Amino acid sequence: MKQFFPGIKKIRYEGPDSKNPLAFKHYNPNKKIGKKTMKEHLRFSVAFWHTFKGTGSDPFGGPVYDRPWDIANDCMQQAENTMRAAFEFFTKLGVPFYCWHDRDIAPEADNLKETNARLKNIVNLAKKLQHDTGVKLLWGTSNCFSHPRFTHGAGTNPDAHVFAYAASQIKMAMECTKQLGGANYVFWGGREGYSNLLNTNMKHEQDQMARFLEMAVEHKKKIGFKGTLLIEPKPKEPTKHQYDYDAATVLSFLHKYGLEDEYKLNIEANHATLAGHTFEHDLTVASIDGKLGSIDANRGDYLLGWDTDLFPSDIYSATFAMMVIINQRGLGTGGINFDAKVRRGSFDEKDLFHAHIGGMDSFARGLKIAHKIKNDGVLANFVSERYKSFKSGIGRKVMRGETNFRELEKYILKKGEPKKISGREEMLENLINSYI
Amino acid sequence: MKQFFPGIKKIRYEGPDSKNPLAFKHYNPNKKIGKKTMKEHLRFSVAFWHTFKGTGSDPFGGPVYDRPWDIANDCMQQAENTMRAAFEFFTKLGVPFYCWHDRDIAPEADNLKETNARLKNIVNLAKKLQHDTGVKLLWGTSNCFSHPRFTHGAGTNPDAHVFAYAASQIKMAMECTKQLGGANYVFWGGREGYSNLLNTNMKHEQDQMARFLEMAVEHKKKIGFKGTLLIEPKPKEPTKHQYDYDAATVLSFLHKYGLEDEYKLNIEANHATLAGHTFEHDLTVASIDGKLGSIDANRGDYLLGWDTDLFPSDIYSATFAMMVIINQRGLGTGGINFDAKVRRGSFDEKDLFHAHIGGMDSFARGLKIAHKIKNDGVLANFVSERYKSFKSGIGRKVMRGETNFRELEKYILKKGEPKKISGREEMLENLINSYI
Amino acid sequence: MKQFFPGIKKIRYEGPDSKNPLAFKHYNPNKKIGKKTMKEHLRFSVAFWHTFKGTGSDPFGGPVYDRPWDIANDCMQQAENTMRAAFEFFTKLGVPFYCWHDRDIAPEADNLKETNARLKNIVNLAKKLQHDTGVKLLWGTSNCFSHPRFTHGAGTNPDAHVFAYAASQIKMAMECTKQLGGANYVFWGGREGYSNLLNTNMKHEQDQMARFLEMAVEHKKKIGFKGTLLIEPKPKEPTKHQYDYDAATVLSFLHKYGLEDEYKLNIEANHATLAGHTFEHDLTVASIDGKLGSIDANRGDYLLGWDTDLFPSDIYSATFAMMVIINQRGLGTGGINFDAKVRRGSFDEKDLFHAHIGGMDSFARGLKIAHKIKNDGVLANFVSERYKSFKSGIGRKVMRGETNFRELEKYILKKGEPKKISGREEMLENLINSYI
Amino acid sequence: MKQFFPGIKKIRYEGPDSKNPLAFKHYNPNKKIGKKTMKEHLRFSVAFWHTFKGTGSDPFGGPVYDRPWDIANDCMQQAENTMRAAFEFFTKLGVPFYCWHDRDIAPEADNLKETNARLKNIVNLAKKLQHDTGVKLLWGTSNCFSHPRFTHGAGTNPDAHVFAYAASQIKMAMECTKQLGGANYVFWGGREGYSNLLNTNMKHEQDQMARFLEMAVEHKKKIGFKGTLLIEPKPKEPTKHQYDYDAATVLSFLHKYGLEDEYKLNIEANHATLAGHTFEHDLTVASIDGKLGSIDANRGDYLLGWDTDLFPSDIYSATFAMMVIINQRGLGTGGINFDAKVRRGSFDEKDLFHAHIGGMDSFARGLKIAHKIKNDGVLANFVSERYKSFKSGIGRKVMRGETNFRELEKYILKKGEPKKISGREEMLENLINSYI
User: b or e along D74-109 (b: 16 or more beta carbons within 10 Å of the residue's beta carbon)?
Assistant: First the structure.
């Protein structure tokens, strides 16, 4: 079998002191952290689009990579080569999962029938490769944003014809996901938003979207797909006002249309920060409502105003994310998908390995640190102590709904001014540093 | 009676060609625009805090204004003078409404009992002045953010003692609002948020807040207050992650805790833009859910990252806001409150007039333009035409919930690719300019 | 001759009351505003790249336009058709100027020799069309950022081989500009910056750039090109830290390397705002140093963090820009180039007309307003009065360098505290509104 | 002698495993890192204003701290207590330096004469305490921004009277700095900028500023002050467009007015990030011009748009800063001043220790890491290798100014296309992580 990464051997764990850039320093898949192995905790996934279909293009220049899997003249041969290259990569890297959009793995044809035939073809190959390697599908999704037809939206397009097209695509993508045993199905509404309020009926578009998601639930049940349905919030890109701005906005939408029991969230680091939140904030917003289903791990550049999709190399961020995940006892059917891309100038296939190794090591380190923080209990005790006044007396009555404004006024008239208690932010930040 | 603005006469409408800076060029209160007068449409309100208690201080320097109503040595005499100055201002400016925080109109004393006594005193004076002048209270609210006790939050404070204090304040402020015939009562949760996730239990704090708002509803009913309860969203200030980030976030919260029938929103321009939206976006988000209750009119500086509270002088923004308001047939019990302040270097009392005249003229102009756009129907027809495919055939079935993914796939397999239809953004922007 | 815009006639001035979207409401080219016609004041230019080579692609989707000039199979036939379409557009729109990058007008071949031959070919065609129509070249420039070779920079590339390539391109582009009688030559250093400080020697790169610009001056003189050399500042895009961040940064660079007499600036609205300034701020920074050479007119979206290149439809911004330009008595060899693109969903060729008409009308309106403001003198008098203390006494001594800290201390010990004088910002903003 | 921090003992180094929050884990002052001790490398300084005069107030609430040194009724007794508390703090913390604004250490009186007398008084006390403890003054500066008189600027005020006042203040502050043996004198032009371009003559204001800085140089020489003059860049705060936006802008100003030999820069982390740069970017911009004189260490919040002045606890940022400092062989007369403040809710004096310990440990760790990176040479070698093509052949001729566009074109016509070489950003980021 042709090798697409001939110079690269399986990436091994060599420990923190290794100088080998093609080895893990922290990710040791079968090492137990608490009751689960690192592999079980982290459920790493490679994103097919960035790693195998990424070209390095940006708004100021076209493709720059010369990938060996892109050489074939026939587009379906290319697709097949790409899928084989991907599984070679997954295996050498040692990740248990991958993710795709329908159009990543098989190119669109002139009509839907032929497009679907191509997709089925490649899905059959993927199924075989999954079986051969043990690598699994974390989630599938449909690209309803790149084709010109989706310029004004997919589910929220003012043209019902386009709405129907999107429905057809997602129907097929969900069926393919089921065929491959995908653990989740993701909705990222790339063009669900508006560019200009002047030509937009926002209420109508939101009603459309709700109808779309209802049909998706119905179809899921119809075909017996057991995975989790996930919505991925994102603000600002590509259209100006994306409807799925952030976790809270999506939750509001789900509540309004009675869909909250059918969908969870896939939270991406860089999407959270573009919405003005920290990654851990949006993870927490989703988690406290029992809606944190999966994560897209990457890193934004706070000084740039778009989704840079950098590989997640920041140990602080990985630690804070793992603290939320450990706190809710894992991601369930979800995982940590590297929705990240190498920089335009990282021309070599080897750079793909550097990037993923860095991301996996960062989250492995985050896991170890978060686990230690949890085990030591210092931080959790501090927080628990901080809220203890709500566990007895007037505070307990508040939480139980057993008091009212009049009683609280009497309480204050008697008790007077509360004490000022330090929040100890600086001490706690030092504490975190002592674990890193 | 002492005059606080001795050099200023009642501001009159003199029309667009007037060169008199102390005259209205566009706001002509009794002129009918459609079926209502400008005064009825716009329901202007002056914000007591900025206009009478504003000092010009900023993080780099203290108070700079020498206001004649601040001269008295006794703090209650000062409060009384300030209230009298305010009504002189309202009358000379010709606004029908004003708004206050409890602590703006009467200074806090050493204990709640005395503080409440002071407040009652001033409320009695305000009642008399309202009666004498016909000026009304648009809304009251309680300042639960300035005092040191609220550093870690009011309703979301980790200390139940502080929670109780906030409840006591809001109880009294709501009662005073009722006494003055206030049309609404506003919650702006200045310190409801967190500074650092490390010391925070977000779920607990949100549960606390929900309990707080439930008790507020109960108290409202108990005392027979008939006004609308409004929540004002704001991101980022003063604490890092404010819980009431934007309209969608507040709506999500209200849905989650079953409070959606009890509260509407008070949308502020600069809060919307700090959250990454346009003013008209957040107005629309609230409006399409029937939740747009009132607005705080001001202007942010897009190049600065904090609430600049500039007076609203941008005609585009005023026009877009009025388009939303006209579309929902007015603000009901709400109004347009100038939550805006003169610049630090606008030292003179006269500058307060310049500022309000500019804001009122901008919105009056926005009203006239929005009304003309609505009447001409060109824009509305364009939008209606754009969505017409949902009024018949497959689109109609979508909106009625009478179809599914399989039928939509069949539709596409038969119909093929949709047409590309221009969204005409540039043409529509030119159209708007032709009205200005 | 084939028509590329068959349904569009020459755009005419029909005045503010016209309802015809394909007519000018304000731009009346031969109407005198002061001593110059509108055409002479505004010197409008169409940007070849956006208007004829723009595809509507964005980071989330590929090309969407079906342009009749793109139909030919042969790439040079396509280039020729595009140039002919462009001149048809210029003529129908009635703009006196256009601008290009070398690679816009002729596609790159496999080697520089052939690439240059193609370019010469098209330049000959352009020369003929310029002669036939009277349309002139405002400026030429070289695209040293799109090709993969420029990924790590052109003049600042760590590889001298790439540096040499960039030099070769710019040599040729400058010669073509001269051949077409271009009034200016522009440097926009698209890839001059760094993506990551870890792999960068900033000092070396800046020294490289200085050498590059010195050679450009030498070559200009060598070939006898009489146009102005312009540098276009831009922050953040495409590489993280662009060296030509804003006007002040470029001026600092020019001073440091003694190049300040050889270059002026081409200021773009959206580049200024991405750098944290208003358009009029950066125009003023350049203008007060005698370095404002030309402008790229467009509009950013303050809520988005990238160069949106919207057409300039904001009348405030156009007014403020024209105030700076009038103040320095015009742009000399420069002009107002629409470095702007229609939105992705503006699929039709007609939208290109809507967009340019809107931009031209906005600046025409800005010109009329700015001229009236200047003529009335109210604003200028206010400013002059504000600084009058520097025209006599101690202020005059300060400006003449005839005093020192000791004398100033004595002055204060004698004179005491200065008065507080209002800056009247609100009044002045109302004044501007009264002109709009 | 009264103790202001009675419960706190001298902070000791206890190493990374210590659980004592009031001990250093990394800062070991006399430990050698290379040829210098940590103390000599880092030259830590405490900022008098934040640590002793900070009140915890923010735009939404007033002072919250109850400091024992604020108790005295007499303002000069308070100033004396504060100075004594400061030296107790410096000594217990073990920092070698501190910094002040004139108005931090002695309160302003009704007139300049009395104000200066107060200042002299306190300076005498400081001199004695410096002598007793060995703590030194890193720099002094004058607060020409808080008083109402400076609302429209100090050196750039439109009123010459205010200009003179600022000159008087700075004269005295510079003399006091000299008296205390200050190693530098800093200019932070808090109000040097404009709020509104409509009322501003930017050219005039910049000319004023240049005159001001010329007089400062003259006065420095006159009194024989040997310290370094430093300008601190800052964008956006407090006035909208600050003239000293960032390092490049200040360098441009200095070049334009021929002042570049007289001033260096004091670069602050949070000011750099507000200007759209990383801290290390602005440090490098200053350093490569030989102008990096000192630093203000703190941390911004990238999600907030103002100067949060958080204590610097991010190890990445401290490492990158120390890499620049080590690279230029130290800060000379400068140091690392903690221009940082505890959060509003950090009510206790103990929090001041937590905060500074965290900051000092972070920079100590950054120093150790940066030193190791430097010593290992891997990164430096990578960068050197990357630019090697400029050390011979055509590259060498470029850097020596011995070639031109024609020769470079010939070179390319012969050599053809350059190779694509990976910039290895991901690998280098992993490398940095391996040192942390």
Answer: eeeebbbbbbbbbbbbbbbbbbbbbbbbbbbbbebe
